[in-house]
Design goal:
Elements lengths: L4 E4 L4 E4 L12 H11 L5 E5 L4 E4 H17 L8 E4 L6 H10 L4 E3 L6 H11 L3 E5 L3 H5 L8 E6 L33 E6 L9 E5 H4 L11 E3 L7 H12 L3 E4 L6 H11 L3 E5 H8 L14 E5 L5 H9 L5 E8 L3 E6 L10 E2 L3 E6 L13 E7 L10 H7 L6 E9 L5 E6 L4 E3 L2 E3 L1 H8 L5 E11 L3 E10 L7 H11 L10 E4 L13 H11 L6
Parallel strand pairs: 3-12, 5-6, 5-7, 6-9, 7-8, 11-12, 11-13, 13-14, 14-15, 25-26
Antiparallel strand pairs: 1-2, 2-18, 3-4, 9-10, 15-16, 16-17, 18-19, 19-20, 20-21, 22-23, 24-25
Helix pairs in contact: 1-3, 2-3
Length: 537
């Protein structure tokens, strides 16, 4: 997989060469899934649930999806309606998602452990007609005012007198004559809704098009054994679901909570070949005793997302992969995949631009387009038209330009070999004594220390110097590293005193992250300043 990036010197635009598409985007994802799953042997295994000890074949999975889709038609759901899903990766979540696609009715997947007010906020935007949920979250869903008119079914942990998904699985006379719907609005039609990261407040409902859902699937084969802890509200969860239903293979799911030990247990037990994982989880599993060439011998592809991964971790992981590729990529919920690096080359870069993607770097002060090695805000334009944030015109207009360029809010630059580098979120850039600095850059320095597992840098306001850099640091178990040693190391690596830990270091057991593994900087800062004593320099 060699990515080629082309640079237009006149327009100052970088473009990914080639095509990332193996399907016609005029065909709905439901049409593709229908014909692919129907073409499989009905006894071929499609999905295994480790937590529920169940197996779904392709024949059973598509039959269930058709029956659920027929019930949606009886309920008169249209392509303009929404189906809500608030549940872990249980056995029947996949047929529900495919049923939505068969009717071209978008589903909104929400992380089931979100607080009630977050779910209320999101459903108030989309107003789903039908909701599928974990029975343990039923009261939370029922209490949402925006869900009062929705028909609610439980997907697992069923309750007495509450409809359940199994009620929709009875055979029908017409199921063998079922045909999937065609796209009403074309390839850019919304077929799913993601939650934005929510690192700056309530998450937004991000429209995901049919075009985006059916691209960049060609880096795995039809016999993959796939695993990701993510549900379809996150990139790796949706990606593994799409590969499973559009290409083939076996998808391993679980509703058990994540731990690095359990992840490795799954990898070894099922001989996983395609692994979707967060950057932080990559670091955690790479430190386990059983993380070695023997236990990873079946791995062929690791798709890593959700934040920064230390260079030392990337090198350690790749050293144990004999026949596999580790993709360290960059993408956004709004645009999908943007860039990817699959080599031990320029590991501090997120790689070259993916096919059907354009990038320009904009000076934040002047608005001018920048050239190689000049830092600015990253703008992205894709081959599809993004529909924005569902029901939020103001938020959409803030990031989407009329000619299709999307403001990412990320700062970075592209070098002379067309490798993209990320520096930080533009909103996270801090100022010390009149000089700007990036918390991300200091985090990378701290993570160079072998005894450090995780780090988050934030600013503490000072009347004289503005933002004093502070770091929340998670040490590896048993490590004797001190706060003073961390401060000293950072100081030795940076001559610029704005990049020193001028406020100090907090030693913490863990750093708050959202459901997708992204660091919650604000919550980390609030926790540290409220509960923990720090070293003041």
């Amino acid at each position: 997989m060699e990515l080629v990036t082309v640079y237009d010197k006149l327009e100052k635009i970088w473009s990914g060469s080639g095509s990332g598409r193996i399907f016609d985007s005029n065909k709905s994802i439901g049409e593709i899934a229908f014909y692919m799953m129907r073409s499989k042997s009905p006894t071929e295994i499609c999905q295994i649930s480790d937590s529920e000890d169940t197996t779904l074949t392709y024949g059973t999975a598509i039959t269930y999806a058709i029956r659920i889709a027929q019930h949606f038609r009886k309920l008169e759901l249209t392509q303009d309606d929404i189906v809500g899903i608030v549940a872990p990766n249980t056995t029947l979540l996949m047929p529900v998602a495919v049923a939505c696609w068969l009717n071209c009715t978008p589903f909104q997947a929400i992380y089931p452990l979100h607080e009630e007010n977050v779910i209320e906020h999101l459903f108030n935007i989309t107003k789903p007609k039908v909701i599928f949920c974990d029975g343990l979250r039923y009261e939370k869903i029922k209490n949402c005012k925006s869900a009062l008119n929705a028909k609610i079914f439980t997907l697992c942990n069923h309750l007495t007198d509450v409809p359940k998904v199994e009620d929709l699985l009875e055979p029908t006379i017409t199921e063998h004559f079922f045909r999937p719907a065609t796209l009403k609005y074309g390839p850019n039609q919304t077929m799913g809704l993601f939650c934005s990261s929510g690192t700056t407040g309530f998450p937004k409902a991000v429209c995901i098009s049919n075009h985006l859902m059916t691209k960049n699937l060609g880096f795995t084969d039809r016999a993959s054994i796939m695993f990701s802890f993510s549900t379809p509200d996150w990139t790796t969860g949706l990606l593994s679901l799409a590969i499973n239903t559009l290409l083939g293979g076996v998808r391993i799911v679980t509703s058990k909570p994540y731990s690095p030990e359990y992840l490795m247990e799954i990898v070894i037990k099922y001989k996983v070949s395609f692994l979707g994982i967060s950057a932080f989880s990559t670091t955690e599993i790479s430190n386990l005793p059983n993380f070695n060439k023997e236990t990873l011998k079946n791995i062929r592809f690791i798709f890593m997302s959700g934040g920064h991964c230390p260079i030392s971790t990337l090198e350690r992981v790749r050293s144990q992969l004999t026949m596999a590729v580790l993709l360290n990529g960059y993408g956004t919920t709004e645009c999908g995949g943007i860039a990817a690096n699959i080599k031990n080359y320029k590991n501090n870069s997120v790689g070259r631009i993916l096919p059907e993607i354009e990038i320009k770097i904009i000076d934040q002060q002047t608005g001018e387009k920048l050239a190689h090695n000049q830092v600015g805000e990253i703008y992205v334009r894709t081959s599809s038209k993004w529909s924005g944030y569902y029901g939020d015109v103001k938020a959409t207009e803030a990031v989407l330009e009329l000619d299709g360029w999307v403001r990412t809010g990320d700062l970075g630059y592209i070098d002379e070999e067309n490798y993209l580098y990320l520096l930080d979120r533009s909103k996270d850039i801090l100022k010390y004594n009149g000089r700007q600095y990036s918390p991300h850059e200091i985090e990378e320095t701290i993570l160079e220390l072998s005894d450090v597992l995780d780090a988050c840098v934030f600013g503490v306001y000072d009347d004289n110097f503005n933002d004093l850099a502070a770091a929340a640091v998670v040490k590896k178990p048993g490590a004797k590293l001190t706060k003073e040693e961390i401060v000293k190391y950072v100081k030795e690596q940076h001559e610029d005193n704005s990049k020193h830990l001028n406020y100090g270091v907090f030693l913490v057991d863990e750093i708050p992250k959202n459901a997708n593994g992204k660091v919650l900087r604000k919550e980390t800062k609030e926790y540290c300043l409220r509960y923990i004593t720090t070293l003041i320099e």
